[in-house]
Design a protein that fits this description.
By secondary structure, the protein is an alpha+beta fold. The chain has helices at residues 3-11, 14-24, 28-33, 52-58, 85-88, 101-105, 123-132, 145-157, 170-176, 201-208, 211-228, 248-257, 314-325, 336-355, 406-410, 428-434; strands spanning 42-45, 63-65, 72-75, 92-94, 113-116, 137-141, 163-166, 181-187, 229-239, 261-264, 273-274, 282-284, 294-301, 365-368, 371-374, 387-390, 392-398, 401-404, 420-423, 439-440, 448-456, 459-468, 470-473. A hairpin with a 1-residue loop joins strand 22 (459-468) and strand 23 (470-473). The longest helix has 20 residues, at 336-355. 45% of the residues are buried.
């Protein structure tokens, strides 16, 4: 053993080492040797905006495909891609390669109702949302309100419009969404054994709260998730730990407690290991792939086992929500002055939407407290949940005018909005814009009036307000380049 390997072996709890020796047998030494290797850096291409091949051609560093992830890439360790303008354009998400696996294996299709029940910070949710391609709905939940805010930012940054962000415990979700979702992802809280190599602070956390503590939480979440899944729907369960108790043990508990659930064997790939005692699960070990430790199992709710067709009627509920949260209050007719102001504001909104090359469903546009939202298809009314966001925040109505939001900018592009200014990625004005500075146009660049979309190489960064040869910066202050 090398010095680093010995040091890490000294850090590992004796109980954990015994379990890993039993789990891996003769491969245990190879596992320890993997601590000598640096963690792999990865990114997942946002396929809502471009392809993996385009990304490989245009990134300012060498990349290599992640073999088991269709839109995953390895990149050089020394490069800070979080400081690249393309990151601010939402073209990719920085993610550990193994962590890309569960969302990639969940068979999400456009139009599905999808739940990510432990979603923050958003690595898996952003992939699920991209694969919906703007159709159906993604509900992304995290019980921590502060983490849910970070989740919201990442979803908006990548241009996911048909999403709702919630901060609730699983039992409240379960009561609000019985037999509702086509696909559910549980990336469960766990003891984090698979992250020991990448984050050695996880060893200390393991000593404080080990597998037994987390297995109880995992089973509670899984039980509520079963009730939210439609008959015929799929549930992906994943962790970043090696513990049999937390992995196969939780899956076996679920199968025993809920006979309507069945295990769907996952197709393996090079480097993937089989489950322990349950065929069809996938285990990832850092000594067998370029990534950290992960576990994934796919389950299906048998057809005919639930109350098919008992879910909320999507169109009716969307209309009900519009009536309940719209700008018009029930119980009386608005005064003429208020009606005139509302018509003027609606004209401003309509004029802006006509500048986009998107076919908006007006029945899904809702105004609440002067905030304009575009609701996802099939969002139920009156769930009683704490929503941080319901759909796409389009913008705000202010004193007779409409101001588009940062989230609205991120679903657009040079191809989808008529009034655009696009700078090359190396143009210093890109960074100046991301810092919040006023932008000056050069000779030969057309004068710009009104709301304009600021882009880099045609990809949206945010809005500005044109005044001839200068553009007032409207980039969201909370996202600015620091």
């Amino acid at each position: 053993m090398g010095a680093q390997e010995k040091n890490m072996a000294d850090l590992l709890p004796e109980e954990f080492k015994k379990e890993m020796q039993q789990l891996l047998g003769p491969e245990y030494t190879q596992y320890l040797e993997s601590f000598q290797n640096p963690a792999s850096r990865g990114l997942r291409v946002n396929t809502l905006k471009w392809t993996r091949d385009e990304c490989m051609d245009k990134l300012p560093c060498q990349t290599e495909p992640v073999p088991w992830i269709p839109n995953g890439l390895f990149y050089e360790e020394q490069v800070r891609l979080s400081r690249d303008p393309y990151y601010f354009a939402g073209l990719y998400y920085l993610q550990e390669p193994s962590a890309m696996t569960p969302a990639s294996l969940l068979p999400v299709e456009p139009g599905d109702m999808v739940l990510d029940i432990c979603a923050a910070p958003g690595g898996k949710s952003t992939e699920l949302g991209a694969r919906l391609m703007g159709k159906g709905m993604l509900v992304a939940n995290d019980i921590s309100n502060s983490r849910a805010k970070a989740l919201l930012k990442n979803l908006e940054l990548l241009g996911i419009s048909n999403m709702c962000v919630v901060s609730e415990p699983p039992e409240r979700l379960g009561r609000a969404f019985p037999d509702f979702f086509d696909k559910i992802l549980i990336d469960a809280p766990c003891s984090g054994e698979g992250m020991f190599r990448k984050d050695r602070d996880m060893v200390k956390a393991w000593k404080e709260k080990g597998p037994q503590y987390y297995s109880r939480i995992q089973r509670e979440i899984a039980g509520w998730a079963v009730g939210m899944l439609k008959a015929g729907g799929y549930l992906m369960y994943s962790t970043c730990t090696f513990s049999v108790m937390e992995n196969e043990g939780t899956i076996q508990w679920l199968l025993d407690e809920f006979p309507q659930m069945e295990l769907v064997p996952l197709k393996g790939f090079e480097g993937a290991d089989r489950g322990r005692g349950l065929e069809g699960c996938i285990r990832l070990f850092p000594h067998k792939i370029r990534g950290e430790g992960h576990f994934a199992a796919l389950l299906r709710k048998k057809a005919g086992s639930g109350q098919e067709g008992q879910g909320l009627k999507r169109e009716d509920e969307t209309c009900r929500r519009q009536k309940g949260e719209g700008s018009r209050k029930a119980g009386g007719k608005k005064p003429a002055t208020a009606q005139n102001k509302e018509k003027e504001r609606n004209r401003e909104l309509s004029a802006f939407l006509k500048e986009t090359k998107i076919c908006w469903d007006e029945s899904r546009i809702v105004v609440k407290n002067d905030m304009v939202y575009y609701l996802p298809e099939g969002l139920p009314a009156d769930t009683g949940l704490r929503f941080l966001r319901t759909g796409l925040w389009m913008g705000t109505l202010k004193k007779g005018r409409f101001e588009p939001s940062q989230a609205m900018a991120m679903v657009l592009s040079q191809k989808l909005y008529s009034n655009c200014v696009s700078f090359g990625r190396e143009d210093p004005r890109v960074i100046r814009y991301l810092k919040g500075e006023t932008i000056s146009l050069e000779q030969g660049e057309a004068p710009v009036k009104g709301w304009c979309l600021i882009c880099t190489d045609g990809f949206a960064l945010g809005f500005g307000k044109g005044n001839g040869m200068t553009i007032k910066n409207k980039y969201y202050a909370g996202w600015r380049w620091q």
